[in-house]
Amino acid sequence: MTQQQTIKAIETFYNGHRFRSRVEARWAVFFDNAGIQYSYEYEGFDLNGIWYLPDFQFRYMCGCHVYVEIKGQLPTAEEERKALRVCVADRHTVCILCGDVWPDRYVGFAYIPISLEPEKLNGFLAYLDSMEGLKWKSPTEAILLEGEGKDAIPLFMANVEIGFMCVNTAFVSCPKCNAVFLENVKEMDCGCSVEPCLTSPLLRSAYVSARSARFEHGEKP
Fold first, then answer.
1. I need a labelling partner for 199 at 20 to 30 A (CA). Which of 1, 30, 118, 147 fits?
2. Adjacent-strand bridge partners of 38
3. Eight-class DSSP state of 150
4. Low-confidence spans in the chain with pLDDT less than 50
5. How far is 14 from 25, CA to CA, in rounded Å?
6. Cα gap 221→211, rounded to integer Å
7. How many other CB atoms are found less than 10 A from the CB of residue 145?
8. How far apart, in whole angstroms, are the C-alpha atoms of residue 172 and residue 196?
């Protein structure tokens, strides 16, 4: 009987950090070239005996921060539960990026905490009621799907009992100030009140730098 081999990611050194995989290192190259400040494995969480250490933390002058988890493929149900528990318990956004560092080669989604204070919650419920196509799976859980049947893709979901919503996200660029941020994540929004772009010279340059970085034997690019 053949024993199944475990494929181990190559640890990669870049910019003073030893990343656990090349895909993490490539995303770090992207962040640097896009002007996004980050800390690597900055803070861990004890989730009732289960240790969870997000890959990246983006910090901002306002005191807000966002956790970003990198996955080579779609996360497992357990990995999603960990991200959700940190979002709800720590009251900060947790984003998961899955796939290669290139437009249309990765998917991203963000768990965002919502306030359960009556005044703010009522405003959020009114916002949900205004969303075309939104369906309530239960009195406290809503979902918005694209497509039908088995091919349906969730674009948005919210649970007003637990206190979170989950939205699709991707990196965009502001045409006014050139800031790069994750779409639908308000902590990262530059505040310019203009429609962000999925493509820009800065974004393309950051993607190209990340994809073309050479890591020989797991070391520097």
1. 147
2. 58
3. G
4. 1-2, 4
5. 7
6. 11
7. 16
8. 6
Q: How far is CA 41 from CA 17, 48, 52, 72, 110, in A?
A: 10, 19, 10, 17, 18
Instruction: Tell me what pLDDT residue 1 has.
Output: 42
Q: What is the CA radius of gyration of the chain?
A: 19
Note the pLDDT of residue 48: 82
The structure tokens 């010279």 sit at 201
- Supply the pLDDT for residue 216: 65
Q: What is the CATH number of domain 12-113+198-212?
A: 3.40.1350
10, containing H or E segment: none
203: buried, middle or exposed (CB in 10 Å: 19+, 13-18, 0-12)? buried
pLDDT of residue 8: 66
What are the structure tokens assigned to 166, written together? Answer: 């989950």
How far is it, in rounded angstroms, from Cα 124 to Cα 17? 40
> What pLDDT shows up at residue 47?
83
pLDDT of residue 206: 96
Q: What is the DSSP letter of 197?
A: B
- Point out which residues pair with 57 in neighbouring strands: 39, 67
Please report where in the chains the tokens 């990198």 appear, as a residue.
70
Give me the amino acid identity at 124. Answer: F
Integer CA distances (angstroms), 153 to 47, 145, 150, 214, in order = 29, 5, 9, 35
Distance CA 22, CA 27 (A): 9
